């Protein structure tokens, strides 16, 4: 009996301890603490550390804006597993889980839908779409899928009994795409927006949208938090009404289809073969101006493909394609690649300083680069036109929507600097953004820059996931991609 009582007391002790621990993990009501605890996955569509060393991502931006509007602090809990995030949310370990699809059967409530995504099949670019679909429907290969697309696959299986798949409960879109790129998986079914972002730096993959499964992204919260649901509904209503949501979507996805696969592969090859000759000079230009050397290198590639002898029909020349007037203004010899790089960097910095009191980053950089291409005068005209059309002249997304109008007489005749081929700077900047994204994936920054600590936003990363934008890929991957192609 004594031994039984000791055992019973031990059981009760450990049982109580586990219960206390469970209660300790539950968050207090956000309305009391004024802190919102948010579960989020790491990755380029949600939260990551960008090339400038700042936290970024569509979900990060949306959550921080929502918190600021409602005078709340934010504590992000970064996770690699969305299914686990939802389970933790049900256990009240957080107030929100963001970045996932609406699931009415999850036992949670959802805020307003803010982005539509579709299932995208990813496979090797050496395989045709018809061959890939045949291999799947006839059961010749197994598909790895995210959990949210199982319903669509069950419907497909009624017509194609040979279809088989395995659910990647612990995976995310980017990790599945990477495994296809490396030949570890034959096929993966992922979110369309993630596939679009990844295609530039995994140019040896191909995609298909033939598997029909539309999803709506929405923030999830415990089923008893109706007050938070109402606040989120009002927030997204305002985001849609004032154009903020459109501008954010453009920031992260507006340029993803600008560079095609062949161009991306050629670029990856020149990163390996040509860039090392000029890399130190781009880094010196960064030291002089504070501009990321990878941005400067991407600009130079966009302008001349890193060819110091490049000349355009309009007379601009050199590795940074400077006009004679700009070269004289910067006091450099534009035919000398070192001086051209330094001069081009100084000129971009000058253009940014012209916009410094108005446009926030990263819009200021993209506006300055548009001016680098089309001239500051025409950029001023475009911003004037944006104001007339009740758009934001400090937003690159809004300015690029009006730049093409500078070629139409009914618009340019009313502006100071007249006619311009306004579509060209849009293509120029969007292509440059893609080249910069690729280079930032494969080349580390010249120095490690950590996100600045904040009193209002904290990011906890208990799994020690790599959040930096260039963490998944490394310079050796360029050579492997070229070889795979």
UniProtKB/TrEMBL annotation:
Record flagged with keyword Signal: yes
GO CC terms in record: cell outer membrane
Alphabetical GO biological process terms: peptidoglycan metabolic process
UniProt keywords, alphabetically: Cell outer membrane, Lyase, Membrane, Signal
GO terms, molecular function: peptidoglycan lytic transglycosylase activity
Keyword Protein biosynthesis: no
Pfam family, one: SBP_bac_3
Enzyme class at the top of the EC tree: lyase
Record-listed E.C. numbers: 4.2.2.-
Residue span(s) of domain Solute-binding protein family 3/N-terminal: 35-256
Alphabetical list of NCBIfam families matching this protein: PRK10859.1 (NF008112)
Record's protein name: Membrane-bound lytic murein transglycosylase MltF
Organism, as annotated: Chitinibacter fontanus
């Amino acid at each position: 009996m004594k031994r039984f009582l000791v055992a019973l007391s031990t059981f009760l002790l450990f049982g109580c301890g586990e219960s206390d621990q469970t209660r300790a993990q539950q968050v207090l009501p956000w309305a009391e603490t004024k802190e919102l605890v948010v579960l989020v996955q790491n990755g380029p569509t949600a939260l990551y550390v960008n090339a400038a060393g700042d936290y970024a991502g569509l979900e990060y931006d949306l959550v921080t804006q929502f918190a600021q509007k409602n005078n709340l602090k934010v504590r992000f809990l970064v996770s690699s597993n969305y299914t686990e995030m939802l389970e933790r949310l049900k256990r009240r370990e957080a107030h929100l889980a963001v970045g996932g699809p609406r699931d009415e059967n999850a036992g949670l409530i959802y805020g307003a839908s803010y982005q539509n995504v579709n299932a995208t099949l990813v496979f090797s670019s050496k395989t045709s779409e018809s061959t890939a679909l045949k291999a799947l429907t006839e059961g010749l290969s197994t598909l790895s899928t995210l959990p949210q697309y199982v319903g669509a696959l069950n419907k497909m299986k009624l017509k194609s009994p040979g279809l088989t798949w395995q659910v990647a409960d612990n995976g995310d879109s980017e990790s599945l795409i990477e495994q296809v790129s490396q030949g570890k998986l034959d096929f993966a079914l992922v979110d369309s927006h993630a596939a679009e972002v990844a295609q530039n730096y995994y140019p040896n993959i191909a995609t298909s949208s033939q598997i029909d499964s539309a999803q709506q992204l929405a923030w999830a919260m415990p089923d008893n938090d109706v007050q938070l649901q109402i606040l989120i509904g009002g927030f997204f209503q305002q985001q849609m009404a004032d154009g903020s949501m459109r501008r954010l979507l453009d920031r992260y996805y507006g340029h993803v289809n600008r560079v095609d696969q062949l161009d991306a592969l050629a670029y990856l090859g020149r990163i390996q073969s040509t860039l090392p000759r000029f890399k130190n000079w781009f880094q010196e230009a960064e030291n002089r101006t504070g501009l990321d050397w990878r941005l400067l290198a991407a600009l130079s590639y966009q302008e001349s493909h890193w060819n110091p002898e490049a000349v355009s029909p309009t007379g601009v020349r050199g590795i940074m394609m400077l006009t004679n007037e700009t070269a004289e203004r910067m006091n450099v010899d534009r035919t000398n690649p070192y001086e051209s790089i330094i001069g081009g960097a100084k000129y971009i910095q000058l253009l940014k300083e012209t916009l410094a009191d108005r446009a926030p980053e990263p819009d200021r950089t993209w506006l300055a680069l548009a001016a680098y291409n089309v001239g500051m005068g025409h950029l001023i005209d475009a911003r004037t036109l944006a104001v007339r059309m009740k758009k934001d002249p400090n937003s690159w997304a809004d300015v690029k929507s009006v730049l093409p109008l500078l070629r139409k007489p009914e618009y340019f005749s009313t502006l100071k600097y007249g006619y311009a081929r306004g579509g060209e700077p849009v293509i120029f900047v969007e292509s440059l953004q893609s080249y910069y994204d690729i280079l930032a994936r494969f080349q580390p920054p010249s120095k490690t820059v950590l996100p600045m600590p904040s009193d209002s936003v904290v990011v906890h990363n208990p799994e020690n996931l790599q959040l930096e934008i260039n963490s998944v890929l490394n310079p050796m991957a360029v050579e492997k991609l070229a070889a795979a192609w």
